[in-house]
Specification:
4 helices; 4 strands; 46% helix; 30% strand
Amino acid sequence: MMIGRVGFLGVALLSAMHAFAQENAERDAVEAADAWLALVDRGDYEKSWSQAAALFRNAVTADQWSQQLRAARAPLGGLVSRKVKSKQYAESLPGAPDGKYVVIQYETSFQNKKSAVETVTPMMDSDGTWRVSGYFIK
């Protein structure tokens, strides 16, 4: 009976540690995403590219990124508000190499678009830093 209790406590402790690690990852990823979004909001598109994950920078050039972001963001106008709607830790995402990711959805309002959803996906880069690897507006 004692072995069963110890085993259950061990499993419960490991489960709690895993949940705590995911909460920390989500918190750190949201902080990274917020800082990165501040660059985008200011129109500092080249800096947002240079501070993105290596996976992101290898997929698009700085010039391509700036052009795409200008085309997507300019019609929306300035940022009015943004708040985290959801965040989900994942180690596997479609079309991406396995790694540590957090998919964050923001409820966002712009001057010319009252209701939008921004999806920002930070990933743990090879140096252990959370950096944005994907950005979409819907």
